[in-house]
Amino acid sequence: MTSVRVTAAASSLIALLIATLGACGSSGQTGQPAGTSVPAAVPTAGQIRVDPKGVEQIWVPAGSFKMGTDEATIEQLKTLDPPSFVVSEFAFEQPQHLVRLTHGYWIDRYEVTNESFAAFASAGGHTNRAYWSADGWAWLSAQPAPGQAYCLGDLPKDPVRCVTWYEAEAYSNWRAGRLPTEAQWEFAARGPQSYIYPWGDDWDPTRCNVVGSTGPVPVGSHPNGASWVGAHDLSGNAMEWVRDWLGVDYYAASPTDDPPGPVSGTQKVEKGGWWGGNQFVARSAYRHFEDAPDYQDVHIGFRTVTA
Ligand SMILES: [Ca+2]
């Protein structure tokens, strides 16, 4: 009988130790007190998910890179006979400066498609005030017939274009996201190595829909041009609205951490170059910004970021 009592006591002690060790292990791994919910694991770079609207997104982890272009690279580019309008814009890529994205984020794997933008419109995107900023709603209310404009190339999987920055903003709100900041967009394209192009430092016209192109192509048509995290068409196809206002001197005073762009302005930055462009505008540091947020044309689309 004695031996039985000892065994039972030992069993209870062992069970208690196991339970205690288990609780300690859980707390040590998650930083959460025992008994609280365990947070989801942090995604890995390039991890793919499908968001609630059915759009594929890629995880970009927190990290640092060199934003903009250094003087030596610009001098080298000038030897390649760039168009005069590009030469005049080089200065806005300077000075190259360190930027740190302190939080990871989900960015669309592809440019927003006609198909996805049509879903936004069908869901009342142009009638639901909740999706629109005050300026965006004022723009929309002044339109004779709100809705998606016809645009050259209207296949469902083509990138949506002929959309204003305001519409891109409203669509992103419908997705429970935002337009990427310029820094988020550029980091998704260049990565910690700060590559010149999404695939590396050497120009390769076969990796993007840019040179000699007469129109958009379905998103993802150039998989060998994907960036370090696997985001497609960051170079070419549709040029992409980003969240930032134009600030020609902003890089000189940009904060290192999560630069949001100037607080106000009249024009928005556009990234990645366009179909029919050239190797200079297809660089990830290139900044095209002559367009107000109510501008639209056949070259300009966007993608969305979700925290
Ligand atoms: Ca693009």
Would you kindly provide a written description of the structure presented here, covering whatever features stand out?
The chain is of the alpha+beta class. It has one domain (48-306): paralog of FGE (formylglycine-generating enzyme) (Alpha-Beta Complex). It has 8 helices and 10 strands. A hairpin with a 5-residue loop joins strand 1 and strand 2. Helix 5 (134-141) packs across helix 6 (165-174). The chain is globular and about 50 Å long. The N and C termini lie far apart (63 Å). Residues 1-32 have low confidence and may be disordered. Bound molecules: calcium ion (CA).
Task: Give the SSE map.
Elements: H1 2-30, E1 48-50, E2 56-60, E3 63-67, H2 71-78, H3 84-90, E4 97-101, E5 105-108, H4 114-122, H5 134-141, H6 165-174, H7 182-190, E6 239-245, H8 250-253, E7 268-271, E8 287-291, E9 300-302, E10 305-306
Parallel strand pairs: 6-9
Antiparallel strand pairs: 1-2, 2-5, 3-4, 5-10, 6-7, 7-8
Helix pairs in contact: 5-6
The protein binds calcium ion.
- Helix- and strand-based class? alpha+beta
Principal-axis shape: globular
Strand order of the largest sheet: 1-2-5-10
- The rounded Rg comes to 24 Å
Bound molecules: calcium ion
The CATH architecture can be given as Alpha-Beta Complex
Q: Could you spell the SSE succession in H and E letters?
A: HEEEHHEEHHHHEHEEEE
Helical segment tally?
Answer: 8
- CATH superfamily, please? paralog of FGE (formylglycine-generating enzyme)
How many E-type strands?
Answer: 10
Distance between the termini: 63 Å
- Write down the domain tally: 1
How much strand? 5-15%
- How helix-rich are the residues, as a percent range? 25-40%
List low-confidence stretches: 1-32
